[in-house]
Amino acid sequence: MPRETLDRQIHQLQDEVLLLGSMVEQALLNAVDTLKRRDISAAQKIFANDIAINEKRYALENALIIIIATQQPMARDLRLLASVLETIIELERIGDYAKGIAKVVIRLGDSTLPMPMREFSQMAEQAASMLHRALSAFINEDAAKAREIVLEDDQVDELYNKAYRAIVTTMIANPEIIDDANLLVWVAHNLERAADRVTNICERTVYIATGELFELDTDDSEETAY
Description:
Strand order of the largest sheet: 1-2
Number of helices: 7
Low-confidence stretches: 220-226
Structural class: mainly alpha
Strand content: under 5%
Number of strands: 2
Mean pLDDT: 92
Order of helices and strands: HHHHHHHEE
Number of domains: 1
């Protein structure tokens, strides 16, 4: 009976992780769409939704601690639970990046500042897609799929570089808009970091499956042990 109880609680926890992931994924996409439409009202709603994301993260953390305290999981189960804790922290931080983009929307107001919207949208879509599939791999403990997803981070980095160059070019041509243009650099940074957080989740998937912690480095083919 104890084993059945633990299995049931872990599955419930995993379902809630997927729900949190869905909330974060949508927040990221909504934030960039809000920037595209310069919708301040929608940006303010993202702030409100971030409160729900934070509450969900802390509720999951509390549930996880209760499982550890009452079920006394050992070995692989404990490794899984530790990885769940790390994953919900990563998800909450991605939610913060979405909130940061919403903050930029509010600060820009009705500014007509040109922006690399195509690159922003592609970065958001790529990061959200990576997140969705990374969480599926995490739940299924699919290390091979996790390793594949990490390789896609290079695509996001390339889009970041394009966006950054476009923003700098705009700054050079129009020095008077440097302050506002710097806000766009933060948008690009937040989207690039969101993809990096997905990489961290993938590392936890590999850890669950293999018992080894590795930094999945997308700059080369080597993996560096912690």
